[in-house]
Amino acid sequence: MNGYAIVIATDEFEKITAASIIGSIAAASDIPVDVFVTMNGLRPFEHEVVETRDFTTGPLGEAMLTSEETEVPLFTEQFRDARDMGPMNLYACTMAMEMWGRELDDYVDIFDDELGVSGFLTKAADKQVIFV
Amino acid sequence: MSEQLTADVTIDARGAGCPGPLMDLIGKVKKADSGTVFELQTSDRGSVTDVPEWVEKAGHELLETVEHDDYWSIYVEKA
User: What is the pLDDT of residues A23-48, one digit of tens each?
Assistant: First the structure.
C-alpha cells in the first residue's frame, strides 16, 4: 500500500469535510493521497456554492459552519493547505463535469487536473481506496 | 514539571477545531531543525490524544502535556 485514493462522490458537507481531514493529515505526514471528485461530489466545489456556503448539510455541518467557539476550516481550505504541505493531488471527473456542464475553471482552484476513470484507476492501483 | 520546559516555538492553536492544531504543528515541525522544542497550545480535546499518536508515528518525542484551565500545552521535540 502506497497511500490513499479518496473518491468523493457525495455532496454531503460532513462527508466531504471528513474526507478532507483524513486526507490532509495523511498528506501532511508525507503519505501520498490522490483525491478523485466525481458525480454529485463536484457541486460543493463550485465557486458560487463555496462563496454562498450553499452546501447540503445535516445538523453537524450546520454547527461546523456557524460555530463561533471553534474555528473549523472549510474543506476547500483544508485541501489547499494539505497540497502545500505534502503529496496530495486532486482531480475532477471529466464525465461528471460534462454532465454538470462545467469546466475546471468553474471550480475552486485546488484541482491539479481533470481525469477519466482509467486515469484514476492507474493512480489508485497501489493505494487503499476510500469511497465517500 | 512543566515549569522546567522551555519551548523554542510556541504555536497558539486555541480556538481551532480538528485537525487545525495538528496541521499547524506538522507544518512547523517540517520546517524546523532537529532538537527544536514546540509548545502546541490547543483547546481541542481531541488533540490531546491525536497529537501524541502522530508524534509517535512520525518518530518525534512527546515531552509533556500540561492541562490549563481552558486549554492544553503539548510539548514536542523534533527528532
Answer: 999 999 999 999 999 999 999 999 99
DSSP collapsed to 3 states, A15-62? HHHHHHHHHHHHHHCCCCEEEEECHHHHHHHEHHHHHHCCCECCHHHH
Helices (H) and strands (E) in chain A, counts: 6, 5
Which residues of chain B neighbour A70 with C-beta distances below 8 Å? 15-17, 43-44
ipTM for the predicted complex comes to 0.81
CA dihedral A12, A25, A67, A90 (to 10 degrees): -40
Measured CA distances, A31 to A4, A23, A89, B71 (Å): 8, 9, 12, 30
What is the reported pTM?
0.90
The nearest CA of chain A is from the CA of B56 a distance in Å of: 12
DSSP state of B18: T
Question: Which residues in chain A touch residue B19, judged by CB atoms under 8 angstroms apart?
Answer: 21, 24-25, 78
